[in-house]
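okkk here we go again. third time trying to get the zinc ion bound version out, last two times i messed up the smiles copy paste (missing a bracket lol). double checked this time i swear
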Amino acid sequence: MPELPEVEISVRRLDSVLGGACVDSAVAPGMNVMKTFEPPLEALVGREVSGVRRVGKMVVVEFGDLALLIHLMSAGRLGVFGRRASPRDRASRVLVRLEDGRELRLREFGTKQRAWAKLMASDAVEADEMVATLGPEAWPAPTAAEFAALIDQPRHLHPLLRDQRTIAGIGRSWVDEVLWEARLSPFKKGSELDEDEVARLHAALHVLGDAIDHYEETVGEEPPEKPAKPLKVHKREGEPCPRCGATIEAVFFSEHQMNYCPAEQTAGKVLKDRRLSRLLK
Ligand SMILES: [Zn+2]
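finally!!
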């Protein structure tokens, strides 16, 4: 799933290659992708792309006073292609065809259709329920005091940091990296942290900025559909911790996994593998 750093590099590149391009036509082959019907997508015809920006993990493509708000969910990809998609391309969800022959293409892979888009007045974006309910952006990080207040909740850090209403932009990959950087257990509760731990967690948000810097250096001028994430612990179970050499462990859930360094994050304790314990029941 694209998270804050991936969506950020995507919108920076989209903004630079699409700015000023004029829309020839716009269609939504994805039956369920459009969550709004008024104005219709055809309202984009003849308009210019005036900017592309990020809000949380969502993309906002602006066409003057209209904006397309896009959520890629876990399997959506946004790219610019030199020619139109084949009508047989089953991954196509939204196609914005440009007069210069290029196409802004929202595609989605896998069996589940979850990615969505909404077309609305540009000045209505901030009031959209998905935008208005977002917590502060995780990067640039909120102030230390603001962050401390946000996470002072009796919830485990792993779901708490992924809750977009608490703090926006962190998902299943980067939460592992942030917690590893802070040397904190994913099962510690936000309200249990002492001052030093809150400060470490706040400081650890820099991994998001570092990832953006990494993408700036490694991604070319073309908008990347799926940049390779520079992850140190997520999905690296069995490998040595890059900091202390202990073996990275994992806890598996039905749709995601969490990874951590037991030596540095859980006082040596290896957390129960829920997948395994479920199988053994
Ligand atoms: Zn370690």
